[in-house]
Amino acid sequence: MKSPRRRRAPEEARREILDAADRLLALRPPDEVGLADIAHDAGVSHALVSHYFGTYVGVVDAVLERRRAAVRDRITARIAKADLVDPDELIDAAFEALSDRTFVRLTLWALAVERPSASETFPLQVQGMRVVADAIAERLGDHRPETRRRIEQAMVVAGSTVLGYVVARNGWMAALGREPSIRFDRSVRRALGEMLRAFTAPLVTETGAPK
Q1: Annotation: CATH topology of 1-54
Q2: Is 3 helix (H, G, I), strand (E, B) or coil?
């Protein structure tokens, strides 16, 4: 049923449009949803959706960024509480985020879509990974360029590995002659954690436990 049109404050209207987009994208593939569908579900005009987000890709990016922000908040909260910056904490958070199939599907769709300008995308505007890297460096109490480089490399390797595993897991298991299992999933997490700990060990050794 179409939501009734009513006057809304700008932030309220924007939030309700995003809520509508999130609901529809959780139910249907991105290519089967359009701006008109989102406007109809939110009870606003097509023009208002375009006003706030520009294009359909802009709406999907905004939905993803809101989900990414929630993940970022959980990761930075873990970093703030941990006695040491443990790679397992970040790996667990990444697997938790990517257990949401809608999040994964939208992420892959967004990566595949051609943008007229990369500067218009939310990841570049918000730079969420930089925020997490800042939190790790602050926890270590070490802002040297070499430390920053290792932190960023570890984050990219972990994120790429987790995303690749989540997306290709069933195919890889078939190619290995294995059945997918929680036990093997856990072994992959442990292996990635061991590799990242070996790579980041010099950071903790040189700086000691974060203050």
Answers
A1: Arc Repressor Mutant, subunit A (1.10.10)
A2: coil
